[in-house]
DNA sequence: CCCCGTCTTTAATCTGTATTGAAGCGGCGG
DNA sequence: CCGCCGCTTCAATACAGATTAAAGACGGGG
């Protein structure tokens, strides 16, 4: 159970102190790790709803296609994330899941959640809160997609990624690795790969960021945050109402 | 408690059979109705997080502004809806709330939810499911905003409204009242009021819908659904895993 | 019944992003 | 070390939707 520290535990510990009992419960979710190579289709929309996943390693994304081939990436998943929460309400999966690099996932059945929900009210409250927080994040993204220019979208995108990575990795600086290619970023932001290239170049020329291979450095994070009116929804949640731990 | 039937109860009854105990619990949420006139600002983003609301009557919307005045409407609320769920996770309200016509709301404190969560597992599961379902709806909307044309956006918009209205009103046909003006629709779909006008006209010329004042009739609903690859997320949820009632 | 304000429609022009295609670049396998 | 392939960059053109302005339509209040 101990050995390597779990990203899921790190992720959740950011918000509340976990009891040993909580850690044991979470460990049941990470019992059966499985590797997938890069660019692998892990499940498809319409599949009869089966497992959720804890991400142990690597980046993935959830996406949907339109009948004519247009694609929208709706969520990017990092180590420590739980994949598939929204689908709990539906009878079928609503999105496709694909790895961008070699990944390690721990599939677990819906029913494992029930155990958590009945035996740890505090952990339940946290998981509910995370689901609701994600909804706020989607709402922020909607604002980005509905009303912001390409420049602003890309800026918001990198700020959001950095904010998320900082939750599971406390000593993250202003530099991070971005393993997505520009077509994938385009499919996430509702733009084209060509325009993503042009926009990154412009951000670089303006001195807002620098690039070295997959490494991105935000050299003027505060300015970027102001530019896109960025709110960090990850750093802090309201846990005051949680049942006592 | 009986008297006029509650829209909230109607809304939830669509998914599960409510016990008398459940109905009593829900009635506590609707204890203190309050009227607001049209175009009223009911709360603002950044407010210290206080009440949620049950909508008894009238349409409202939640929105956010960008610093330079651009606006994004993120959710349209109808009778029977609960407003404010996602904010439970945050310390402050994340959106503004405004009525589009005279409305009746029932404010209730977060703590009222706790009572429900501790005393009716079945009702808790339903409310969680609705929150997660809404997340799926946001994801669908993201796809619309990221990858669809104005034509497709407007089509999806009216289909979505109709699907939602049918939950609380079983004998809704293919006609409904749309009290939003075109600027508001534009702020919802990330377009301009002028282009909304042009697009509605085109849909009308193509025979997809007809308008009479605020009344909208979808004359070729199936074609529209195909056009935008529409999925009704409201009609059916997976309640199979709910604790027995 | 008419005025006035709000909303919708029409029209002309402008712009940001899409599209297409071709030219760099870099890493990996052979 | 070469050659291929995927990704990024650059350039030319196209177009959907924005912008601005002005002219209808509509409805409520005096």
UniProtKB/TrEMBL annotation, chains A, B:
<dbReference type="InterPro" id="IPR036390">
    <property type="entry name" value="WH_DNA-bd_sf"/>
</dbReference>
<dbReference type="InterPro" id="IPR036388">
    <property type="entry name" value="WH-like_DNA-bd_sf"/>
</dbReference>
<dbReference type="Pfam" id="PF00027">
    <property type="entry name" value="cNMP_binding"/>
</dbReference>
<keyword id="KW-0804">Transcription</keyword>
<dbReference type="Pfam" id="PF13545">
    <property type="entry name" value="HTH_Crp_2"/>
</dbReference>
<keyword id="KW-0238">DNA-binding</keyword>
<dbReference type="InterPro" id="IPR000595">
    <property type="entry name" value="cNMP-bd_dom"/>
</dbReference>
<feature type="domain" description="HTH crp-type">
    <location>
        <begin position="148"/>
        <end position="222"/>
    </location>
</feature>
<dbReference type="InterPro" id="IPR050397">
    <property type="entry name" value="Env_Response_Regulators"/>
</dbReference>
<dbReference type="InterPro" id="IPR012318">
    <property type="entry name" value="HTH_CRP"/>
</dbReference>
<dbReference type="InterPro" id="IPR014710">
    <property type="entry name" value="RmlC-like_jellyroll"/>
</dbReference>
<keyword id="KW-0805">Transcription regulation</keyword>
<dbReference type="InterPro" id="IPR018490">
    <property type="entry name" value="cNMP-bd_dom_sf"/>
</dbReference>
<protein>
    <submittedName>
        <fullName>Crp/Fnr family transcriptional regulator</fullName>
    </submittedName>
</protein>
């Amino acid at each position: 159970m101990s050995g390597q520290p779990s990203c899921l535990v790190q992720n959740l510990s950011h918000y509340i102190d976990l009891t040993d009992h909580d850690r044991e419960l979470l460990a049941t979710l990470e019992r059966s790790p499985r590797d997938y190579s890069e660019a692998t289709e892990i499940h498809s929309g319409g599949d009869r709803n089966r497992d959720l996943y804890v991400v142990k390693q690597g980046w993935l994304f959830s996406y949907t296609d339109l009948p004519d081939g247009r694609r929208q990436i709706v969520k990017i998943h990092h180590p420590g994330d739980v994949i598939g929460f929204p689908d709990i309400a539906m009878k079928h999966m609503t999105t496709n899941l694909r790895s961008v690099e070699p990944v390690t996932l721990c599939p677990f059945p819906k029913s494992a959640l029930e155990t958590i929900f009945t035996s740890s009210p505090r952990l339940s409250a946290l998981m509910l809160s995370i689901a609701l927080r994600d909804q706020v994040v989607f709402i922020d993204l909607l604002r980005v997609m509905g009303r912001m220019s390409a420049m602003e979208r890309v800026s918001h995108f990198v700020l959001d990624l950095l904010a998320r990575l900082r939750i599971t990795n406390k000593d993250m600086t202003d530099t991070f690795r971005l393993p997505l290619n520009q077509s994938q970023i385009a499919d996430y932001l509702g733009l084209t790969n060509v325009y993503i290239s042009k926009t990154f170049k412009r951000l670089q020329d303006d001195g807002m960021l620098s690039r070295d291979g997959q490494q991105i450095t935000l050299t003027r994070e505060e300015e970027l945050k102001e530019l896109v009116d960025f709110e960090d929804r990850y750093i802090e949640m309201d846990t005051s109402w949680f049942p006592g731990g």
